[in-house]
Amino acid sequence: AYSARLGDCLVPGLWSPVPGPRPPAPAARLLASCRGCWVSNGSSLQDERITNLLVFGFLQNCSNYNFHKELEVLGRELPVPPAYLQEDHDDGLQTDGNRCSRFLDSEETDSESQEEIIQDIARQLAQIGDRMDHSIHPRVVNNLAMQFMNVNLSEEDRRKHLAAALEQVLQTYPKDMEREKTVLMLAMVLAKKVADHTPSLLRDVFRTTVNFINQNLLTYVRNLVRNEMD
């Protein structure tokens, strides 16, 4: 049985390797350590939706950020449920007591429940992220932001630079949290810090972070949301 609840420190049996080509350096060590990256069927639209909501909710619930306007624009482009765009985080209740969703109208009830779970997970992860924020050296953020400013980089190159920055941070990061959760947290914290450094990069760093999570941590995120819904 899987165990991927938010508060767990260990996730026994969560990952099982699926054969596939190893990624190129410098990201090879990081990606190889997250064996869940080898997802045979790739990410579906539903998976992308979950990751979009998770990363957006994380950024929205972080403290002390300078990209409010950019985040609001991003939320309208995705789109995210209207409740995510409310500044007072009223748990998504409208005046009639119902939550509105633009996703999966045919499964409105399930969608609403899942959105609430994802928002709650994102809020808890943002609280952890605020405590991890100081552990990332400004030089790592500056270098990553400079890479994202290069308009000639492909999306694959951006993911490699993000993975390389994560590998650099992980080398000195305490190992009191399981690997997959640490990588997920640090990827989103790095996205927040790059956007804070240069707010105009928010859209690009958001997309790259979502793609990185879908490629490398999809199984973990799926089970995290599924187990919180049980």
From TrEMBL:
<keyword id="KW-1000">Mitochondrion outer membrane</keyword>
<comment type="subunit">
    <text>Forms heterodimers either with the pro-apoptotic protein BAX or the anti-apoptotic protein BCL2.</text>
</comment>
<keyword id="KW-0496">Mitochondrion</keyword>
<dbReference type="InterPro" id="IPR010479">
    <property type="entry name" value="BID"/>
</dbReference>
<keyword id="KW-0472">Membrane</keyword>
<comment type="function">
    <text>Induces caspases and apoptosis. Counters the protective effect of BCL2.</text>
</comment>
<protein>
    <recommendedName>
        <fullName>BH3-interacting domain death agonist</fullName>
    </recommendedName>
</protein>
<keyword id="KW-0053">Apoptosis</keyword>
<dbReference type="Pfam" id="PF06393">
    <property type="entry name" value="BID"/>
</dbReference>
<keyword id="KW-0963">Cytoplasm</keyword>
<dbReference type="InterPro" id="IPR036834">
    <property type="entry name" value="Bcl-2-like_sf"/>
</dbReference>
